[in-house]
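Subject: Sanity check before I submit

Could someone independently write out the structure tokens for this chain? I want to compare against mine line by line before I put it in a report. The sequence has 144 residues.
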Amino acid sequence: MFFVIEVNEESFDQYVLLNAHKIPVFVEFMGVWSGPCISLDKVLNGQLTYASLAAKADDLEMLNARLLSNLNDYDVRFDRVIRLIAHYEYSETVENLFYIHKSDPEYKEGAAKEMIITVSNMITPVDYEFAQEIKRKLANFLSE
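---
Independent answer below. Compare away.
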């Protein structure tokens, strides 16, 4: 389970230092004026969101087994995508999302296409070339 708490100089000791020995604490320092900080914020918040969602899904091993029994089980494939994102497996994530979108573009009201866009935007600050490749592939796919 993840908690996101905004702290300041007065509350830093209470929320961070006093709890660091009890639970893992991740501290993000950000300057609202800094372009790189803003970009990194998107990546970190995206990862925290997917990690939180992944914690609610079956484990990857179980999802893989279920997918092998039915390659067209889009619910399993979509849960697997969430787990893959949480494990930074972006290439496999995108492959699965394109599979879903190609097979059933209206699955969950176009969720695969939306997730492809979200993932490419999320990883742009850390892997610009791969993000652009994803966007080109999506554009080509949609123009077919």
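---
OP: Matches mine. For the report I'm noting this point. Residues 37 and 65 are 39 Å apart (CA to CA).
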